[in-house]
Amino acid sequence: MSSKKYWQVVAIIIIALVLPLFLIRKEIVLVKYEQGQFLIEDEFTIGWIHSVEKEPWFEIYTVHNNQLLLRETYFKTFGAGTPSEGTIIETDDGYVHFMLNKPFQEVNMVVSENVKTTLYTKNEEIKLYELADNYSNLSFKVQKIPLWKYIRGEKYG
Q1: Is residue 65 assigned to a domain?
Q2: Gap between the Cα atoms of 121 and 62, Å rounded
Q3: 16, 42, 11: which is closest to 150 by C-alpha?
Q4: Residues 6 or more apart from 95 whose CB is under 8 A from it?
Q5: 88 lies in a domain?
Q6: What is the pTM of this model?
Q7: Is residue 157 part of a domain?
Q8: Nearest to 27 by CA among 152, 151, 145
Q9: Residue 131 CB: number of other CB atoms within 10 A?
């Protein structure tokens, strides 16, 4: 094989390996708040202490079809804001679990130190009430980022 042919083959192989890093996009969740933003994986849980019941409340989200899917919520007692639709999931953990599978384009919430608003990812527990100002707005929205950015680690949790 001539030197010219060799370098053409090498160039084609490099392009074939590198091009997908720019063309393939990964769905990931962008978390924005007034002081900044960060990226998290495509499955997470938001937890807080219910302001009336004073009991923990959790919502589990996944990314599905470029939307956030509220897959499940669980809490200890029924009260204000309790879902009226959904399928009850039998468990022995002391919580009432509802399977909802409700899609959202964006999830917005207010962060509060009083209710200890916390984000749980596969690898992290992020105390949002320490990260963002008290009573500030926070949003979750699906973003597609190039695979190379994802591999490089442009995420938080």
Answers
A1: yes
A2: 11
A3: 42
A4: 58, 74, 75, 76
A5: yes
A6: 0.83
A7: no
A8: 145
A9: 19
As given in the structure block, the two tokens for residue 29 are 């969740």
Please check whether residue 139 lies inside any domain of the structure: yes
**Domain housing 57:** 3-152
Given a contact cutoff of 8 angstroms between Cβ atoms, the answer to whether 46 and 75 are in contact is no
Q: Report how far apart, in Å, the C-alpha atoms of 136 and of each of 8, 63, 65, 90, 133 are.
A: 56, 24, 29, 35, 5
CA-derived radius of gyration, the chain? 21
Domain count within the chain: 1
Strand order, beta sheet including 56-64 = 87-89, 96-104, 67-75, 56-64, 43-49, 118-120, 125-127
pLDDT tens column, 32-73: 999 899 999 999 999 999 878 788 999 999 999 999 999 999
- Of the candidates 78, 67, 144, 77, the one whose C-alpha atom is nearest the C-alpha of residue 101 is 67
**Residue 155 token pair:** 């995420």
